[in-house]
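QA checklist item 7 of 12: single-chain prediction sanity check.
[x] sequence parsed
[x] length recorded as 486
[x] structure emitted
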Amino acid sequence: MKKVIRFMLVACAIAILVGTASPTHADTTPFPALVKWPAQIAGGRPVTISITNKPPASDAVGLKEWQDQVARFEKLFPNVTVNGSEYNYAPDTFAALVAGGQVPTLFRVYLTDPKKYIDLGVAADLSTIIDANSLRPVFNPDVFNLGIENNKVYGIPQLAYGVGIGYNIKMLKAAGVSGAPATWSELETWAKKLTNRTAGVVGFSFINDGSNATGWHFTMMGYTYGATPADLIALGKDGKYTAGFGKGPMVDALKLIHDLRWTDDVLPKETLDWAGNGTDLATGKAAMVLMAGDQFAWIKRTYKDVDMTNLGFGPIPAGPAGRVSLIGGNMDMVSAAATADEQEAATYYELYRTFDPAEDQASLEAQKADNNPTIGGPDLPLFVGSYEAARKAFDKTYYTLPSDNYSTFLDAISSGKVKLQVEPGPAGQEYYGVVGSVVTSVLTDKTVDPASALTAAAQVFQSTTLDVLPTPVPIIVPTAAATAGS
């Protein structure tokens, strides 16, 4: 009997040391459980981590889902305490956190900003844990590589989206066309057929309020004409940046906007922000709109009576440079200033909510229980291969949005027919603001010359922004020796 007990104890000890494939539903995983969970985090020492993006009390469903997930993780690893903050990333406010040494242990940034925080030494290297679980090949490289520098992994993608054309299926069918237009020339032709001023319907719309979002939409159009982030804000060998958007592809894209407004008369005459642009599609005031795929969830939440099966999504029209979509989204990173124990706990927490099959199922169940769930929009896949296929097959059983309506867009992305490009930088938001105001001037004044207006804007942006950019000063990160006893 003693031998049996001793054998059982040894077997249990081995199991604890090796860890488990899934900490929750190991026998009923709906898709592969990729992470080998450690028996203990931080050697069992008490460790507290802070994480951003905790839902506010006004979001009762989201908050409960968040709290339940934290409780399950803390039960699995009792020595870890997870403290949440409602802070949501913005470049200016996050800069203040960095300057004040108040960066949360686990934080979320725009998908276009990881390199900034890698170069500044703000983000920790997560390679050891990522590679111990062989996770690199699982991620979609178009997204995952945005958080890699010198082959080291600094970020884990949380959400990715691309930009395309949302359209009203019934309106297009009535005009004798279907799907999304293949080229900007075809969009012009279709938009003229679809515009009905008497009925208050325009053929095409995009954000036009002169804000940064206007510059964001305009830049996407410019990408299809051949502009690249490195051209718009070019880095010279001397380390200085030069504004390059006052000529070439961006001028051609602005001429297209000028023609859509003043020659074709297919654009809205009222001012539209992000919400207004989506509203025009939702309410039938625009037959086609330039938009990001994640806005379909917003439409369903905001306009509960809209027939979502009547709204389709296709790839952005091709310009001289083909189809090019700006990629956006979020990436989660770990603070390099955190202790080794905190970094380990934060990384495993991120992997837990990203990869654990039972957590994915719990999240979907929580969303489905909402009175107006929005699951299954055209987000870009974060994963590839057999893992993505298995996970998507499981997740699809929970979809509440008409995912088949978005297949043309997603197929174009996955097949490579649409090239993905990131936002320009540095000073990307300032750049958007400058070119956004130029777009508004063209839309409101027929006499504005696109080339002259962009050239002047580039000169102003150069003198007021690029010429005064501070040289990045790397943040001094505590060494492992300095933090080991913290």
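[x] summary fact logged: The mean pLDDT is 90.
[ ] second reviewer sign-off
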